[in-house]
Each structure stands twice: as C-alpha cells, then as structure tokens.
Amino acid sequence: ALELDSCCQVCHRLVMESLLAQGQPEHAIKQFERCSAVLQRELGVEPSIELLRVHQMALLKL
C-alpha cells in the first residue's frame, strides 16, 4: 500500500505497530522518520496524532 501512496498515514501507522509488536522499536522510529519526511515534502503537513502516539510508544520501548 505504501508503494501506491507514500503519504498514507494509516499504512505507516500499521507498519509501525507491526514493528513494535515484533520488538523492533528502533525500526518503528525509522519508519516514523521516513513518514514525517514524506508528509512534509509531499503535502507540507505534520504526522497525525495517531502516528505521534505510536512514535511515543516506540521511544518508550528503546
């Protein structure tokens, strides 16, 4: 899905949640950083509250 729409915040969130479930918070953080960069570059927007919440969860698991 991300190949079709790199700005899909729901898709990024699901990837991040999957990475967290697999015990890979560092990869979830990298996914968030990629998502943030794409959103800023393509749409000029910040990540959603939901994405920020999952990012915070990943930071707490480091």
Mass-distribution shape = globular
Largest sheet entry? none
Give the integer mean of the pLDDT values: 97
Number of domains: 1
Strand content: under 5%
Specify the structural class: mainly alpha
Number of strands: 0
Please estimate the helix content.
over 70%
Q: Count of helical segments?
A: 3
Measure the end-to-end span. Answer: 27 Å
How large is the radius of gyration?
11 Å
Low-confidence stretches: none
What's the helix-strand series? HHH
What would you note in describing this structure?
This protein is mainly alpha-helical. The protein has one domain (9-60). Helices cover 71% and strands 0% of the residues. It contains three helices and no strands. It has helices at 9-21, 25-43, 49-60. The longest helix has 19 residues, at 25-43. It is globular. 21% of the residues are buried. The mean pLDDT is 97.
Structural key phrases:
62 residues, mainly alpha, single chain, globular
Would you summarize the structure shown here?
The protein has helices at residues 9-21, 25-43, 49-60. It has 62 residues and is an all-alpha fold.
Blueprint of the fold:
Layout: H1 9-21, H2 25-43, H3 49-60
Helix pairs in contact: 1-2, 1-3, 2-3
